[in-house]
UniProtKB/TrEMBL annotation:
PANTHER family: MEMBRANE PROTEIN, MEMBRANE PROTEIN-RELATED. The chain crosses the membrane at residues 21-39, 45-63, 91-117, 153-177. Pfam families: DUF975. It comes from Paenibacillus montanisoli. Keywords: Membrane, Transmembrane, Transmembrane helix. The keyword Endoplasmic reticulum does not apply. This is DUF975 domain-containing protein.
């Protein structure tokens, strides 16, 4: 498997010449999320539930939108909303990941963090395997991440310096960091999938 530095380099290579759509699409995602947050914050009793109902398909969409960039594709902006096409599955997956992660967090913070990394590939797996149930995608992610959770943690950690620089730009820099980070995560999945000998939609 490639080193994290090489994975980041592949992400930059994938985005070369494609930064404009990558940034515009991420801006679209952020605007939608801010609107959802603004609306749900005004609905005191059921706002959190409405938030989950809308954020679930968007989470699936964000993961897989930048997996397209990692796969040398330039998706249409509407790709961010692809989760609504598989609404039931993405909602179940999103809620299951939240519940399982929270349950582990009740034991201690660290088990909760480990759980989050354990389930991190579920959205990609669900996308590549339309016949899988959300729980099957979670179980495959758990098996896929065995021995690789620390590596993914270190990949995420390597973006902290960039995040600090983005803060100095009053947050504007996150419009570039978001696609970079998300595309690198997509390449991590691609490397992990290839490392385990899984091609196409077989996994």
């Amino acid at each position: 498997m490639l080193t994290n530095a090489q994975i980041r380099a592949k992400a930059r290579e994938s985005l070369a010449g494609k930064w404009k759509p990558a940034v515009i699409h991420f801006l679209l995602y952020m605007i939608v999320m801010m609107i959802i947050s603004s609306v749900t914050n005004k609905i005191h009793y059921i706002g959190w539930a409405i938030g989950i109902l809308l954020e679930a398909p968007l989470a699936y969409g964000l993961y897989n939108h930048y997996l397209d960039f990692a796969r040398s594709q330039v998706p249409e902006p509407r790709g961010i909303f692809r989760g609504f096409e598989r609404y039931k599955e993405t909602l179940i997956l999103y809620v299951a990941i939240i519940v399982f992660t929270l349950l582990w967090t009740l034991l201690f913070v660290i088990p909760g963090i480990i759980a989050a990394f354990r389930y991190s590939q579920s959205y990609y797996i669900l996308r590549d395997n339309p016949g899988l149930t959300p729980m099957e995608a979670i179980n495959r992610s758990k098996a896929m991440m065995a021995g690789y959770k620390w590596k993914l943690f270190m990949l995420y950690l390597s973006f902290i310096g960039w995040a600090l620089l983005c803060i100095l730009t009053l947050g504007i820099g996150f419009l570039w960091l978001g696609p970079y980070y998300s595309t690198a995560a997509g390449h991590f999945y691609e490397q992990l999938r290839g490392q385990q000998g899984q091609g196409g939609s077989a996994y």
